[in-house]
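Appendix B, example 12.
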Amino acid sequence: MSEIVARRSFVSGRVQGVFYRGSTRQKALELGCVGYAKNLPDGRVEVLAVGKPQAVQALIDWLWEGPSAARVTHVEVLEVDIEALGGVPEGFSTG
């Protein structure tokens, strides 16, 4: 089985109320990533991306763009231990 990686990203800027989570889900599924995108109380969006290294990196690169109405100012990326997640998530949620 090929290597699977997990990354948690915190996206800052105008990223809530602009279809950022839904667009992230579409892009993640296109790339074959699983995980989630959720709004945080401080106005950021948290994105967990799990998948093949190239696919996860492509999604992280896309997070800097987002949908056309978004204005991303910063993306903080952290490595996540898949064991700590309790396994690979199924699908990609926007909860």
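Helices lie at 20-31, 53-63, 82-85. The mean pLDDT is 96.
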